[in-house]
Amino acid sequence: MNSVSWSRKRYGFGLAVAAAALLARPAAADDAPCREPFGVVADETALPAEAAPVRLFARLLPEPSVEKVRTGGKKRFLAAAGELILLEAGPWAFDRYVTREDFAFISTRTVRNNFRTGFHYDRDTFPVNQSSHPYHGSLFFDAARSNGYGFWESGAFAMTGSLIWECCMENTAPSINDLVNTTFGGMTRGEVAHRLSAMVLDNTATGASRIFREIGAAILNPVGSLNRLLRGEVGRDFENPPDRFPSAVVLSADLGYRHIGGGAAHPDQATLSLSLLYGNPFEGDLSRPFDSFWLGIDLNAPGGVLASRIEERGILKGWELTDRDDKVRHIFGFTQEYEYLNNESQVFGAQMFGAGLLSRYSLGKNLVGLTDASVIVIPLAGIKTTDFENPETGRNYDYAPGGGARVSARAYLGGREVLAAGYGVAWARTVNGVSKNNTLQFFRALARFPLAGPVGAGAAYYWYSRQTTYPGFFEPRKTQSEWRAFINAVFPFPFR
Fold first, then answer.
1. Distance, CA of 77 to CA of 34 (rounded, Å)
2. Angle formed at CA 464 by CA 458 and CA 465, multiple of 5 degrees
3. 8-state DSSP, 64
4. In 146-206, where does DSSP find H-type helix?
């Protein structure tokens, strides 16, 4: 599929993560539990429950209301369906009449041909397929989510929107990869956008605060803000929803320097790593999909790609296997994820599902350990394998389903993450492209040291590897190693 030109420059979601937290208003409270979503890969700061003495980093919200299980209010099917149609017609009209893209010249004949041809793999660029399509899917998803539908129902809207676009809004054959990326990526990214925008909004705010909150929510969730505008909610004073906030939200930022080894084109860069934790499974944020989730993004400059890592991971369903007062606690759960990596050895984009065990250990006064071990399933990954466009596929990356495993461990002292390490491996067998198999690995380790208040210092080592096999030739394993030094700041955001 030649995709949506209209959506190609809309991939700024990771940058809005910090704005989502900073626009919200903190209020004083007491000690906070661990802000640790299931399956996080050892590169963020969290707050263990045993860190009660560290009040600067451990402030607790009131207990979540039992009404959090609600789906979002009255279901408005006509509004959701109408917006889905607009999200189809708007991009198509832009591509057809403004940019005059070849694929946008459609007719009843092209629709019939698409149904006869069936699904294939398309020739679009890596950013379009692995970035723009998940974003477009999130708009389909939020058309339903902001009109009262739950996670799974909104996922059906994302899939419907993708199917309509593939069969009817282009004159090229429907693509398998777009259906996967738009549906599953749209569900992950759409739910994250929906929850963050709800957190930013305050229906009781007035003046400049109200204006900035509405703008921030519109950046995160434009379809949700359109619905607020149509329903007359933008300037109206009314009660906030009971599930506006999870048990806690924590933003962590590492700002510093990274050096990439192995002859990288841009070996020395400034780097900003952001991670945001939403909810706490150990405090019961498990009743609905994405009651607990985690976001991570690495931004680097000058030179090279701006965003080298974007990850969004939420718990679909989890079960507490132990009692709440046990010194060792375990949660088993399933996750859904969006992954986007761009470094010297791995250019990788995929929607993933995981299953595994998250454990927390009380090791002594103010000392806590956390481990997680999980297996992952990858319905279809995009993996860059060559530096040239293959004449058959028109791409320099291949499509491959696969699976893998990952483990990580973290240690916390006095409410601050001081040590962390994680390793993961994935195997993928190519179904469309020039390669045969891919083995991807990563290792990350870091240490942080508190300095004053929320500020600390730290260092980290990252390693990535890709081993690709081909039917006709041999390629040595590609690796990237880097070390980092940074100043860290942690911002817990409790709310009332």
1. 38
2. 160
3. P
4. 151-168, 176-180, 186-200
Rounded to whole angstroms, how far apart are CA atoms 459 and 442? Answer: 17
CA atoms of 292 and 243, how far apart (whole Å): 13
Of 37, 43, 35, the C-alpha closest to 420 is 43
Q: Please check whether residue 234 is in contact with residue 228, taking contact to mean a CB–CB distance below 8 angstroms.
A: yes
Residues in contact with 494: Cβ distance below 8 Å, sequence separation at least 6, in sequence order: 26, 27, 29, 32, 59, 60, 61, 248, 249
For residues 374 and 356, the answer to whether their CB atoms sit within 8 Å is: yes
Distances (CA, A) of 424 to 332, 410, 481: 19, 15, 15
CATH classification (class only), 246-492: mainly beta
**Tens of pLDDT, residue by residue, the chain (496 residues):** 554 444 333 333 333 333 333 333 333 333 333 333 334 444 444 444 333 333 333 333 333 333 343 445 689 999 999 999 999 999 999 999 999 999 999 999 999 999 999 999 999 999 999 999 999 999 999 999 999 999 999 999 999 999 999 999 999 999 999 999 999 999 999 999 999 999 999 999 999 999 999 999 999 999 999 999 999 999 899 999 988 888 888 888 999 999 999 788 899 999 999 999 899 888 888 889 999 999 999 999 998 899 999 999 999 999 999 998 899 999 999 999 999 999 999 999 999 999 999 999 998 888 989 999 999 999 999 999 998 888 888 999 999 999 999 999 999 887 678 899 999 999 999 999 999 999 999 999 999 998 988 899 999 999 999 999 999 889 999 999 999 999 999 887 644 3
Backbone φ and ψ for 296, nearest 5 degrees, come out as -145, 140
Which residue intervals of 247-403 are DSSP H helices? none
Delimiting residues of CATH 2.40.160 domain(s) in the chain: 246-492
Q: Is the dihedral of CA 91, 92, 97, 100 positive or negative?
A: positive
Q: How many CB atoms within 10 Å of residue 496?
A: 10
Which token pair is 21? 């937290």
Under a CB-based contact definition with an 8 Å cutoff, are residues 305 and 260 in contact?
no
Q: For 67, what's the count of Cα atoms within 13 Å in the CB-facing half-sphere?
A: 8
Neighbouring residues of 341: CB distance < 8 A, sequence distance ≥ 6: 308, 309, 347, 348, 349, 464
Euclidean distance between CA atoms 142 and 215, whole angstroms: 17
Burial 459-493 (b: 16+ CB within 10 A, else e): ebebbbbbbbeeeeeeeeebbbbbebebebbbbbb
